[in-house]
Design a protein that fits this description.
- By secondary structure, this protein is mainly β.
- The chain has a single domain, classed as membrane protein fhac: a member of the omp85/tpsb transporter family (Porin), CATH 2.40.160.50.
- The protein has 3 helices and 16 strands.
- A 16-stranded antiparallel sheet has the order 1-2-3-4-5-6-7-8-9-10-11-12-13-14-15-16, with no helix packed on it.
- It is globular and about 65 Å long.
- 41% of the residues are buried.
- The N terminus is likely disordered.
Length: 403
Amino acid sequence: METPAEVKEEVKEEEDTARPLSPDQVDVGDLWRILRDKPPSESPDAATGGNERRRFVFIAPAIGYRPSHGFTAGVAADVAFYLGDPRTTRLSSMATGLRVSTKQQVLGNIRFAAFSNRDAWLFQGDDRLWWTSQDTYGLGGDTPSADVENVKYDQFRFFQTAYRGVARGLFLGIGFNISDHVDVRPGSGAPTDGEESAYVTYSRQYGFQVERQTSSGPSIALTFDTRDSQVNAQRGTLASVSYRTFFDGFLGGDSNWHEVYLDARTYKAIDKGARHRLAFWFLADLVAYGTAPYFDLPSTGTPERSARGYAEGRYRGDHMVYGEVEYRGALTASGLLGIVAFLNTTTIDNAAAGEKLFKSYAPGGGVGFRVLLNKRSRSNLCADYGWGKDGSRGFYLYIQEAF
């Protein structure tokens, strides 16, 4: 049983790490009120949720461009909510959207991180239902951009993990993961039979079906998270490691293989008011045992907002290491407008060909613009333009930060 003094100290720590950027913040909703000659709402104390509100919702059209999808249009929703006392429970978040693209794709996503009362449990999900296509290349970091074949497929992804809080900021979890690619077929610009694609070559080499490939199995995970926000962190650290197992014959799985997934992020204010910040991201995705289906191999764009400047799947291999640094700054004193500048790099191997990690790199970089949609949840509308090597580039428009 905690004493009142201990509870008070815990609440004080939450307030110290979750205080808003400025007491005079203005978001898009406030701007709309100003245009209607109404006063902006008061900036909340992020630790208490402001005015005892427990849920903050923003729904907006989603228009953008990505190398893998072309121009996309649809609707996106961002929801931030408390599942317990806001003084002792972290803010949960969910981002979802449905888009169609000029490449005849339909893309549905939902990602969430939900903390129960007093952070006793953490539930995370990253799910996807896509009717899509992707340019495919050979494995490794030296594959030429001219050796490309487009492949169409339908994708169902269901990655869920339930964590139990075991210490302050530390969570131990178990999960279930399924990645299913069905109706795989030649895409636009591909040979009639698709036999020349890197996907078909890899699949036949390792005995996978060409028309459908599935990975399915349980996982264990350990996460340490001291970030002040799941949506848009200003300070704190995330360090997590997952060991994912996939089994031949388990719910349609096509092979036995294991994956180690490491994710580390930290955020540092570089001025007293946290108007200028640096964010760092390190990622390692490693096939530890067995042979993964082609589309489940580590690749750029996995997770979806990594390696800005490159198309999803531009570089793919058995082991991938990724790093990124991003500057985040406020353009206005109210926090309504902001800018970012980022640099990233990816190294990836091809074990079968003897190509090692750190032999070659795929660097990227770019700039972005931010609009504060909701000051309570710190949700931003993010517009980024990124460049990579060999003429790779892309425009990205989304809600919530890349990491």
